[in-house]
Every structure is written in structure tokens, then in C-alpha cells.
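retry 2 of 3: previous attempt timed out while embedding 3-methyl-2-oxobutanoic acid. Reduced batch size to 1 and resubmitted. Inputs unchanged:
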Amino acid sequence: MKTTETIRNMKGKEKIVGLTAYDYQMAQILDRAGIDFLLVGDSLGMVCLGYENTLSVTLEEMIHHGKAARRGVKEALLIIDMPFLSYKVRIEDSVYNAGRLIKETGGSAVKVEGGKELVPTIKAMISADIPVMGHIGLMPQAIHKTGGYKVQRQEGLIDEAKALSDAGIFSLILECIPMGLAEKITKAVSVPTIGIGAGSLCDGQILVTNDLLGLTERRLKFCRRYLDLQKEIACAIQRFIEDVRKGGFPEEDESFS
Ligand code: KIV
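retry 2 succeeded.
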């Protein structure tokens, strides 16, 4: 079973590969395929629940899906995202909510979006034995502050990353950052950086599984679609509908005598 230490120790040795998972079946497939870590991301809201953005995702929804994913995972490290306003509130409440995510889902770590302002919260979580993954660059929970989903080019991100690394996070997501800046951050911190739209020079990569599989409508510059599952599924379902309507399903060997 991979741990936060496994991931931390991979920096500079081998590339770390992560994907999102929101349910038992997909978590099991990804785990069996050999993924290093699975993130029950709050992208859950947009990918599985049909919300416009991630802001309405609740702690209860994260727990519900985290528990389902947990049942499918044997080897990979399981990380659960902290949804909007389950942290960045009073530190005691943030630690309590992080604790609920770990205790009730069986995940091994939480992820939080933010920079230096989160250092006291992260230290308090780590003091409560809760490992934390950081997330800087494009932070979907902050879209109303930053004005939308844009590439983040501020050199100040290097200091934010160092502050988080010094606070004790075990790894750091870099989302939508130019590759040169992502490289500088990766060199500046002692923990592994995991890129999503941050180029190839990070210590690892993560994508939203449903984007990679072509299940989502959106087309993202940084996401390679390995399958067009939406099309494949629609074709299969249309064949099933046709078979039933024409009397071609079920056949005798698909029936009990
Ligand atoms: O919620 C999520 O899926 C994420 C990844 C995109 C890193 O935060």
C-alpha cells in the first residue's frame, strides 16, 4: 500500500502518476492499472454531480464519494479534497473537517487549495496527524476572486510553494502554470510537485480521469484524451436499444430454460 512517504520519496527518482476517482468501480480499475495515487477531487461537483463549478460541493458529498472510492483501492494512496469553506474558516473547524474526511472515508491524506495564508491551518492539521497535499496556481475554489479559469503566471508562486513545503505538506499540485515557472517551483521545494497543465518538468502528473477517458464534454489544452468514451458508450447503448426493439436481444443462450 502506497503512503504519503512513498510519494514524497519518489521525488527526483521516478515520475509520480495520479488520477481522480469518485466511485468504487473506477477506483478499482485505476488502482489495478498501477496508479500511484488517487484523488477524490472536488471536481466531483462538475464531473459527477453536474454542478457549474466546485464551490457547491459539500463535505458530506466528499465523504460519500470518498468512502466509495476507498472500497476500490488496495495499493494506491487515497487523497480526499477538502471542499470550499470546509477550511479557510476557524483553524479548529478546518482540522475537525479534515479529520472527518480521513476518519469517515478511510483516505490517507487531504488536499487544500491555497498559499501562505494556509500555513497555520496546514501545521495544525499535521499536528493532528493528518497529511496534507497543497494546491497552487489555478485554484478552482477561488474563481470568483481570480476572475475565472486562467493560466497563473505570478513569480510569487515560488514563495507560496516554499512556504507550503516548509509547513510540512507531502506534495504539491501545480495547476495551469507555465512550464518554466513550474520547473522553478519544482527545483525550489523539497516535496514532489504534481502538474496539471503545468508542463512536463514537474515531479509527477495528474489529470481528471473523466477528461482523459473522453467522458466529459470539455476540451482542455493540457489534457490528452486517450479514449472517446462518450462516443463509445452512446454507440453501445444505441446498439442495445436497436437489438431490443428488433427482437435481437436476448437470444436463447442469454435466457434461462
Ligand atoms: O478536484 C480536482 O480534481 C483537482 C485536480 C484537478 C488536481 O483538484
